[in-house]
Amino acid sequence: MENQQIWDKESFSFTIDFQKQILIAILQNKEIFDRMGLYIDYRYFENKDLSKIFKNLSEFIQKYKGFPTKDSLIEHISNGNDAPDSIVETVEDLYSAKKISKENVDYIEDSISKFIQCQELKKAIVSSLDYLGDIEKHDKIKEKISEAINIGEKMEDLGVEVYSKDSILQRIEDRKNNTEIQRLSFRWHNMDAIFGGAGIGELFSFIGPSHSGKSMFLINVGVNFLLQRYNVMHISLEMSEKITEQRYDMSLLGLTKSELNTPKMIENLKARLKDKIGKLWVKQFPADITTPSDITRFMNKVASVKGFVPDVLIIDYADIMSSPSKYHEKRHELGSIYRSVRNIGVEYKIPVITATQMNRGSLTKLEQGKLLDESDIAESYDIMRILDAGVSINSSIEDRHNNRAMLYVVKNRDGDVGQKIKFYIDWSKAYAKEWENTTNTSS
User: Fold this and answer.
1) Fewer CB atoms inside 10 Å of the end CB: C or N, the chain?
2) Three-state DSSP state, 8
3) What are the φ/ψ torsions at residue 6 (nearest 5 degrees)?
4) Domains, the chain, ranges and CATH?
5) How far is CA 348 from CA 58, 301, 311, 344, 381, in A?
């Protein structure tokens, strides 16, 4: 089978012989249908007889919870009438086919996955043709094609049988080692104590008013991941790539902007690189027109072309992205953005860290000495429902002069809220660290 042609370049299709082999493999190895059958659309088969046979085979299996005999399948197809000779002949060929070797079964099953992805992609392209003339619907084209490309991962994810013996033993081991939910350390003691770190597939946000230091905290989180040798992808929708790079240098090396142009910069950088750090990939996207799908396509492209796969994604920041779907109200669009951004983390199995804008009234609240909470988030309370974890940034004008800020835990899906974490901020070096006397108790 490995030497047979499965793709016809002239017709941009899988060969009919290969499509026939798919049915033979399914009939001889029922596990293939269990794993892939529900993902195969009968319309994927470009031969009308094979298409009709698979459609009826699938219907029979789902209705009677078992595989049909040759005669049962022909009867099911004919539905009380005489089945066409070509159908009968093909069914007989399928059932009388030579037994496929184990090696070829594995090859065919792998090829079936490619068959499903290819046919789904062709279907997505054809169904998107009507959208080409309407620029407002181009995001729908992107979504359709992205879904088709990612269908392979969906086939592989069958979830978890929670109370199987293996699953129970694995949970016990994970809890014993405190690895049940995989998290990456923030490298800040109190943040780790409260959140356990940034969770894989979770969305964390630094929430604050304008000029509160949201971008600075995102860069410091990025630096802390780099120092643990994690690969970081930093998407900026506000600052240029050059400014973002500059702030990473300042925070990582503990230097002011002016000190970046001195020999001290080279010395500090050599010391950091000697310790080995993770890789940092920075990309600026335009605000207001960039969608979450644009980011996933970019991540796929960088992985394909440069081999860079991030351990964590930082987006500065989600509020100024474009919604995948258009709504009459801004709050619904923000909800759609945050759901899609969170899904990036779920899909790629990485934490996603972003920032969230608070309303203008939050500045007055700060000057009154009050802590900012979820009620101060601009536009959409839905954001809080979608976030897995988040902290508000509390830093009044006086606080900024005294190099301090207070992070207040406003969302913690896996723990308590209300804790306060004191931070020392050196704005001249874009640097943040916890105060040693920080307490984690609510007040």
Assistant:
1) C
2) strand
3) -110, -10
4) 7-156 (1.10.860.10), 178-434 (3.40.50.300)
5) 32, 14, 9, 6, 26
